[in-house]
Amino acid sequence: MNKHRIRTLLIKSLLLGSVVSLATSCGPGAAPTPNPNQVKPIKAVYVNPFKPGTYQHFTALPEYPKTYKVYKNGNVLAATNETNSKIIIDLSLQRAKLYNGNQLAMDYPISSGNSKFPTRTGNFSVLEKVPAEKRSNLYGKIYDAEGNVVNSNANKAVDPIPEGGRFEGALMSNWMRLTWDGIGMHRGRVPRYPASHGCIRTPGSVVKIVYNKVKIGTPVTVQP
């Protein structure tokens, strides 16, 4: 490389605010010299390597699995019905997946049992379906005689009800029972952590879809 070429490269590099070593400009394999004028840290920009709209792209998002977003495979979801559906619930991810056979139809957020009331793992099936006014007979709110809430997270079996007061069970619309001792999937508040008394809370935006795609006997697997 002639002197004129080297001088030109040095001038260009200085104008850009960095100094490039001659070794770098003369041949491959040499590491560039750090820029002494770089005082602010440079943040790496994450680029999702997968095609937008694919499930691989969805699960590669930085906010997955904590995101409230729902993945839907439109064609597969449309073909999913009570004769071919199954559900897999992943407690570690706090997400559930609706399948058509072995094809993923939908991936959505859930909230399972908290540390005091952990959701049991294992293989289950839908035992009962109640579309609307299903209420818990154990967990809910306690009101005093004036109608004020005195306990918003009450256990009817142990928490006292004041004289003249009443207990109101938590609303569990689109109830899909998994056990006869009170565990099931239903509509509810879904923070991105385990918060229920053992049930699988499902967002209102998808619970009706799930409800309409399953039947009594649909297999449900709960994984740790």
TrEMBL record:
Kindly list the GO CC terms recorded for this protein.
Answer: extracellular region
Highest taxon of source: Bacteria
The record's Pfam families line, in alphabetical order, gives: YkuD
List the Gene Ontology MF annotations in alphabetical order. peptidoglycan L,D-transpeptidase activity; transferase activity
Q: Which CDD domains match?
A: YkuD_like
Signal peptide region: 1-23
Keywords annotated in UniProt: Cell shape, Cell wall biogenesis/degradation, Peptidoglycan synthesis, Signal, Transferase
Functional pathway? Cell wall biogenesis; peptidoglycan biosynthesis
Query: Among its keywords, does the record have rRNA-binding?
Result: no
Q: PROSITE patterns of this UniProt entry?
A: LD_TPASE, PROKAR_LIPOPROTEIN
Iron listed as a keyword:
no
> In this protein, which residues make up the domain named L,D-TPase catalytic?
85-223
Q: Which Gene3D superfamilies match?
A: L,D-transpeptidase catalytic domain-like
Family membership noted in the UniProt record: Belongs to the YkuD family.
| Protein's name in the database | L,D-transpeptidase catalytic domain
Identify the species of origin: Rubritalea squalenifaciens DSM 18772
